[in-house]
Specification:
Helix content is 0%, strand content 47%. The chain is built from no helices and 11 strands. A hairpin with a 5-residue loop joins strand 5 (44-50) and strand 6 (56-58). The chain is globular, with a radius of gyration of 13 Å.
Length: 124
């Protein structure tokens, strides 16, 4: 199970930190990622990492503004979002999979097997 939190409304240029608390599986064996879906748009990958490694992946649209991190002791994934833009408005989901897909999505399909319920981020 994965539960996201931290979404909300913020003005352009502001910051938010999303959290994803994972439970019920061996967190350290999985690749974890953040994805988002804006109204009328396809789901897209934002950032990803391997819970037992140092590699991180970012979509070009968020590089330099978003940072993915984790606290393995709490089985929690984070997404620090800064310099937010109106185009960052979306429902943000965390996801987990045993395969290292990075931020790959195709046609709105992102091949991670396990998903949280999502948290809304609105930038105005």
């Amino acid at each position: 199970q994965m539960v996201e939190s931290g979404g909300g409304s913020v003005q352009s240029g502001g910051s938010l930190r999303l959290s994803c608390a994972a439970s019920g599986y061996t967190y350290s064996s999985y690749y974890m990622g953040w994805f988002r879906q804006a109204p009328g748009k396809e789901r897209e990958g934002v950032a990803a990492l391997y819970t037992s490694g140092d590699t991180t992946y970012y979509a070009d649209s968020v590089k330099g503004r978003f940072t993915i991190s984790q606290d393995n002791t709490k089985n929690t994934l984070y997404l620090q979002m800064t310099s937010l833009k109106t185009e960052d408005t979306a429902v943000y989901y965390c996801a987990a999979d045993l395969t290292g897909w990075g931020t790959y999505c195709s046609g709105g399909y992102c091949p991670f097997g396990y998903w949280g319920q999502g948290t809304q981020v609105t930038v105005s």
